[in-house]
Amino acid sequence: MSVHEQFAEDLALYALGALQGEEQVALEKHLKDCAVCPRELEQLRGDMALLALSTAGPTPPRPARQRLMEAVAREPRVRAVPTRRAWWVPVPWFAAAALALVAVVLSRQNANQEQRISLLQQQSAEQQAQLRRARDVLATLTATDAMRVTLVAAKTPPQPQGKAIYVRNRASLIFLASNMPMLPAQKAYELWLIPTSGAPIPAGLFKPDAHGSATVIDPPLPAGVEAKAFAITVEPEAGSAAPTLPIIMVGAGE
User: Fold this and answer.
1) Residues 134, 137, 141, CA angle at the centre, nearest 5°?
2) What does DSSP say about strands 201-206 and 161-167: parallel, antiparallel, or unpaired?
3) Which of 8, 96, 167, 195 has the fewest CB atoms within 10 Å, measured from its CB?
4) Which residues pair with 194 in a beta bridge?
5) Residue 186 Ramachandran class (φ > 0 left, ψ -120 to 50 alpha, else beta)
6) How far apart (Å, rounded) are the C-alpha atoms in residues 124 and 135?
7) What is the dihedral of CA 227, 232, 235, 238, to 10 degrees?
8) How many angstroms separate the CA atoms of 185 and 171, rounded?
9) Beta-bridge partner residues of 201
10) Under 8 Å between Cβ of 65 and 47
11) Which distant-in-sequence residues (6+ apart) come within 8 Å of 203 by Cβ?
């Protein structure tokens, strides 16, 4: 038997992954120097792939099956020793471990996707809330049934002004102030809704900026209260339950 023929007999076992030890090392060294055996090895591997597909798909070509069967038949039976068979034993365990690893990776990817979806949903909810608030403000500013009140202080240049826009049905109030004097520390302006009957109702605290401007938007108000006027007093920063005299600005409905 020639050296080439001896290695050719090992090609079938090598293609199956069953060649080990010195025989595997010797064959791999031979494959580097031989021009014929590498082609034969690739042909055997292709035939094995076709045979593997035949268990779940179409029947492989007859020549491919015949070539593989002949290559296996040429291999001496003494090579099928128990130690060779033992090499296949860990395969089910390895497959199970691989599937478990894939499951862990997919689970982490799924968790990351769910986290990103939750974040996007939260951002969407916040944007929707801001949009609703902007629509409410615009509706109050443009409502035809809104009560518009201008609050002024006499003989004070430049003249402080306040404009209240109130929609009774929605209990919605927007107040805009300008040219308001600065206040001492721990003091704030408080806006009051003066109803047609009953005690004044607190309608928001505010402090003007460096230009004397301030706004109060949708303070908490009881529903359906009919307003006779609006007024402003100076109160502690925490606010008061009733106006502290004097009332420095007041205005009735136009």
Assistant:
1) 140
2) unpaired
3) 96
4) 229
5) left
6) 16
7) 50
8) 31
9) 193
10) yes
11) 173, 175, 190, 191, 192, 193, 216, 219, 221, 230
Token pair 């293609």 is found at 15
217 has which bridge partners?
174
The region that residue 211 occupies, defined by phi over 0 for left and psi between -120 and 50 for alpha, beta otherwise, is alpha
Q: How far apart are CA 148 and CA 140, in angstroms?
A: 10
Model confidence pLDDT, tens digit, residues 229-242: 999 999 999 999 99
H-helix or E-strand containing 150?
strand 147-152
pLDDT digits (tens, 9 = 90+) for 45-87: 776 666 655 554 555 556 655 665 666 566 554 444 444 444 4
Neighbouring CB atoms inside 10 A of 68's CB total 22
Secondary structure element (H or E) that encloses residue 23, with its range:
helix 21-33
Q: Are 221 and 203 in contact (CB under 8 A)?
A: yes
End-to-end CA distance of the chain: 118
Helices 37-53, 3-16: axis angle to 10 degrees equals 30
pTM of model > 0.70:
no
d(CA 149, CA 1) in angstroms, rounded, equals 114
Give 242's Cβ-side CA count (13 Å radius): 3
